[in-house]
Amino acid sequence: MTTTQDNPGPHGYSSAKDDYVKRLARIDGQVRGIKRMVEEDTYCIDLLTQISAVNKAMHSLSLGLVTDHMNHCVTEAVASGDEEVITEKVQEVSTTIGRLLR
User: Fold this and answer.
1) Which of 16, 32, 77, 97 has the highest CB neighbour count under 10 A?
2) 64/43 Cα distance (integer angstroms)
3) Quick one: how far is CA 73 from the chain centroid?
4) What is the mean pLDDT of the chain?
5) pLDDT tens digits, one per residue of 4-25
6) Which residues contact 34 (CB under 8 A, 6 or more apart)?
7) In this structure, is the dihedral angle defined by the CA atoms of residues 74, 79, 83 and 84, taken in order, positive or negative?
8) Taking CA 19 as the corner, what is the angle to CA 13 and CA 21, rounded to the nearest 5 degrees?
9) What is the separation of C-alpha 36 from the centre of its chain, rounded to a whole number of angstroms?
């Protein structure tokens, strides 16, 4: 598996890093809100509705990161012409998408 040490930036998301940080802060706020709802004994369906919203937000964030990865890292690998690097990057994306779909 490739790690940050193997690929020290810039990464595909680097140009949108501030936007990702803001989105994560909003998601963090939503999760804290759900915790508060549990502490306050909020109705189950209301909790599930908020959990669904967080899941949707995380999936959207994930899709953006996968897209950025393909537009930057995979495109860069293809431009290199190195078949081994191309295969590795495509496999990374495939494995990642598989994890996201579970």
Assistant:
1) 77
2) 32
3) 15
4) 90
5) 556 666 777 877 899 999 999 9
6) 47, 50, 51, 54
7) negative
8) 90
9) 25
